[in-house]
Amino acid sequence: MAGYTLPEGFTDVDMFLFGSALFVGGVLGFLLNAVTVVSFLRVRELRTPSNSLVFNLALADLSLNVNGLTAAYASYIRHWPFGQNGCAYHGFQGMIAVLASISFMAAIAWDRYHQYCTRQKLFWSTSIVMSTIIWVLSIFWAAVPLMGWGVYDFEPMRTCCTLDYTRGDRDFVTFMLTLVLLYLTFPALTMLSCYSAINKYFKKVHHHRFNTSLPLRVMLMCWGPYVLMCIYACFQNVKVISPKLRMVLPVVAKTNPIFNALLYSFGNEFYRGGVWYFLTGQKIAEPDPKKAKSK
């Protein structure tokens, strides 16, 4: 480790602490989402079109966990061992995971709206088409920087890679604002409208099945500060922000898979029964949303 120069603004202790935060968050998120994925594959009752969206969300979050664990490893050895091409792939893989994860959160909100408010059942054909479109678009937009619209480069600690927001050039500005519109503003508005309608329905029937404000709040809590920093970089020199703060924000964002597993799998009334059965072998009754209508 002595043969490598520490990045500006970081000490050995900083590298260890950031690496440990990435490691703990990555391992916890990986375990929770792995349980979600394996439960779907092993428990036949879980394999429904609606639950397949939760399954795909867990796959995306697993990929983000792997991305974070790779960064944790590099932080522990104090340098990035995979070269510039490895950095580009790391940024590309992480971007796919992020875009797919946020997209599936919006898709689940849309499906929940129809489950509770319109009583329209999601069919396998619709679920498969939606999931395919989400993955294809996520791969496409993540690949755009590899083709020259934006660049993947090192984050301040130089042990993980993402879209280089320090350049502030026209390519970064146009690409970042496009992503913010398509992959934060639109999903957030979708979630807001869907969960607001569900909340009104719950109030009407006097039966609140889950906290309708949590999904959007959690997403904005995790990704909001990091995205705001990227937007700031579109108009000002982001390097005036300390390197440590610029590393804290992506580390916080990478905790999102933990909360997603707790909210959409372990906290989902139509999914947690299957998880419980997978973990314990004991079945619990699955709720019927139609029963709430009579209350």
TrEMBL record:
<dbReference type="GO" id="GO:0007601">
    <property type="term" value="P:visual perception"/>
</dbReference>
<dbReference type="Pfam" id="PF00001">
    <property type="entry name" value="7tm_1"/>
</dbReference>
<feature type="transmembrane region" description="Helical">
    <location>
        <begin position="88"/>
        <end position="110"/>
    </location>
</feature>
<dbReference type="InterPro" id="IPR017452">
    <property type="entry name" value="GPCR_Rhodpsn_7TM"/>
</dbReference>
<feature type="transmembrane region" description="Helical">
    <location>
        <begin position="218"/>
        <end position="238"/>
    </location>
</feature>
<dbReference type="InterPro" id="IPR001793">
    <property type="entry name" value="RPE_GPCR"/>
</dbReference>
<keyword id="KW-1133">Transmembrane helix</keyword>
<comment type="function">
    <text>Receptor for all-trans- and 11-cis-retinal. Binds preferentially to the former and may catalyze the isomerization of the chromophore by a retinochrome-like mechanism.</text>
</comment>
<keyword id="KW-0472">Membrane</keyword>
<keyword id="KW-0675">Receptor</keyword>
<feature type="transmembrane region" description="Helical">
    <location>
        <begin position="172"/>
        <end position="198"/>
    </location>
</feature>
<dbReference type="InterPro" id="IPR050125">
    <property type="entry name" value="GPCR_opsins"/>
</dbReference>
<keyword id="KW-0600">Photoreceptor protein</keyword>
<keyword id="KW-0812">Transmembrane</keyword>
<keyword id="KW-0297">G-protein coupled receptor</keyword>
<keyword id="KW-0807">Transducer</keyword>
<keyword id="KW-0157">Chromophore</keyword>
<feature type="transmembrane region" description="Helical">
    <location>
        <begin position="15"/>
        <end position="41"/>
    </location>
</feature>
<protein>
    <recommendedName>
        <fullName>RPE-retinal G protein-coupled receptor</fullName>
    </recommendedName>
</protein>
<dbReference type="GO" id="GO:0007602">
    <property type="term" value="P:phototransduction"/>
</dbReference>
<keyword id="KW-0681">Retinal protein</keyword>
<keyword id="KW-0716">Sensory transduction</keyword>
<dbReference type="GO" id="GO:0004930">
    <property type="term" value="F:G protein-coupled receptor activity"/>
</dbReference>
<dbReference type="GO" id="GO:0016020">
    <property type="term" value="C:membrane"/>
</dbReference>
<feature type="transmembrane region" description="Helical">
    <location>
        <begin position="53"/>
        <end position="76"/>
    </location>
</feature>
<keyword id="KW-1015">Disulfide bond</keyword>
<feature type="domain" description="G-protein coupled receptors family 1 profile">
    <location>
        <begin position="32"/>
        <end position="264"/>
    </location>
</feature>
<dbReference type="InterPro" id="IPR000276">
    <property type="entry name" value="GPCR_Rhodpsn"/>
</dbReference>
<feature type="transmembrane region" description="Helical">
    <location>
        <begin position="122"/>
        <end position="152"/>
    </location>
</feature>
<keyword id="KW-0844">Vision</keyword>
